[in-house]
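Subject: for your reference before the review

Hello V.,

The reviewers asked for a structural picture of the protein, and I figured it would be easier to keep everything in one thread rather than splitting it across files. Below is the amino acid sequence we used in the manuscript, unchanged from the supplementary table.
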Amino acid sequence: MNNPSRQITLIDGGMGQELLRRSGAKPTPLWSAQVMMDYPDIVRDLHVDFINAGARVITLNTYSATPERLSRDADESMFESLQKKAMQIATDARERAGVEGVRIAGCLPPLVASYRPEQAPEEHIMRSTYQRIVEVEQPHVDLFICETMASIREACAALTAARETSLPVWVGLTVADDCSATLRNGDELCDAVETIDEIGADAKLLNCSKPEAINASWQSLCSGTGSVGAYANGFTSIDALEPGGTVDSLQARHDLGPKHYADFVMQWVEQGADIVGGCCEVGPAHIEVIAERLRNENYSMQ
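And here is what came back from the structure prediction:
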């Protein structure tokens, strides 16, 4: 049964895949950052479309703009300029949309590669890099999302760095697609939840995983305290993506349109999710349907 007194935070969907579609650009290892360099207005317009669809949190388009990725795939000296560009674009989009209450989330992604925590640097290096990202983004964002964390040690490094600020910090964990309620490296989700609670996350989320895997992991996610939520991807599988590779190795599902995806999201809301949205292959049309469903079922959105 729904609870109209509950407030649900609706966040945006995935940027990278939608930016590639809109730009018609060939994927590169820099992914969404490359589109931002070549077509900044497309990034701004996508942020605006997510806001108009109902999202009240938009995330900086800096997922692939970490120093480690830039050192491997381009030039590490591009870090600050890309971060500043993303922050300016997000701010411009919020102003252009003219919708009150929209927050901008700073992005603390995997530093080297998605879904491959074995590629992550040693803890002290990770923490130092995350501190560098936090320092640049903090003056321009309203909260931080540590997203697509595939191991406890990745999550701890990002969360610890973000906790040095006074801003809210959410942690998004990516779980194995085999519905085992484990992170991508095999860490038990229950253990990750306990560790994150000890450090002090403001919310724990499951992201960039199949919605079916999120369903199978929900009880473990809720084993801790505080706010929970989820935003799934729409990939058939992530196995083909290699570090430094391009997303053209991945395929989108054809059975996860806006209405079907919204069915999953409403299940999470009914089970206690406070924060919902979408990840890769989830676009503004999906967010619009979720917003409509939430309104129709009398949830309060923020």
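For the response letter, the relevant points are probably these. The chain is about 45% helix and 15% strand. Residues 7-301 form a domain with the TIM Barrel fold (CATH 3.20.20.330).

Happy to draft the paragraph if you're swamped.

O.
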